[in-house]
Specification:
single chain; 10-stranded mixed sheet; 5-stranded mixed sheet; 15 strands; 18% helix; 41% strand
Length: 256
């Protein structure tokens, strides 16, 4: 009788431990599956490997032109996080105006992202056609930002202005305003920045520092021959094809 009672007690204890184990497992699963990560993306405007200084710093292009950069702005939109397992996460309503004259605009704070090993970023340079024709907007898409063609009812996707002794234009100025959202002159371009495989750690907090290299804009053009693009067309399309390659990873910092 005593042995039977002991066996029943031990069986009861085992059942209790089993149930406790299941409950703890569910708690751990719920905790980890709901875990999120924060991502800080810093976009550093540069000229080649040098940090970009507006107005006062002279730079030398690969075409031999000496240039001073006065204005450098572009839109980043439809931002997606790419994960090592092949999944993607789209940042809703993501339209960011990056302005080299405003350091704060170069910092993108993305919170509550799904936890996972990040493989890279995907985004468009510019504003899509749907947003361009949907009326007035606030924030970075506000028309007062100077990135909208009222005469053409569309956003300027990227803008570069400056001066060069090579320019034959008034006051030796160059102006590149790249826009256009309608076929065949849709200048919206997609850029992808991938992380090296050895930086694929899962992290709850991460900072990606990207370069936006303005020297790419001059790689295939002499300012003596072309000092301005101000309307949608073939020239704007060609420049958009070139500057979509201006982004590259500079640094990757993360915390577990």
């Amino acid at each position: 009788m005593a042995q039977n009672r002991i066996r029943k007690i031990l069986k009861h204890v085992r059942n209790v431990y089993f149930l406790v184990g299941i409950c703890l497992g569910l708690v751990v699963f719920a905790t980890t599956s709901g875990k999120k990560q924060n991502l800080h993306v810093f976009i550093q405007p540069t000229f080649g490997k040098q940090a970009l200084t507006l107005e006062t710093q002279a730079y030398r292009s690969t075409q031999g032109d000496t240039v001073f950069i006065d204005v450098f702005r572009f839109y980043i939109s439809n931002l997606q996080i790419l994960y090592r397992d092949g999944k993607t996460f789209s940042i809703p309503n993501s339209y960011y105006l990056i302005d080299a004259s405003d350091t704060a605009s170069c910092h993108l704070q993305l919170s509550s992202l799904p936890l996972g090993a990040i493989a890279g970023l995907s985004f468009h340079i510019g504003v899509d056609s749907a947003k361009s024709v949907s009326g007035a907007h606030a924030g970075d898409l506000d028309l007062s930002k100077g990135m909208y063609w009222s005469w053409n009812s569309g956003y300027i996707n990227a803008k570069l202005e400056g001066r060069s002794p090579s320019c034959l234009s008034h006051k030796q100025q160059f102006e590149f305003h790249v826009g256009g959202y309608a076929h065949p002159n849709n200048s919206l371009r997609k850029a992808i920045v991938m992380l090296p495989v050895n930086t694929s750690a899962e992290a709850t907090s991460r900072t990606l520092q990207l370069q936006a290299d303005v020297s790419v804009w001059f790689a295939k053009r002499s300012l003596r021959e072309q000092a301005g693009i101000m309307i949608p067309g073939k020239a704007a399309m060609a420049l958009a094809d070139e500057y979509k390659h201006m982004f590259r990873l500079q640094n990757d910092l993360y915390e577990k």
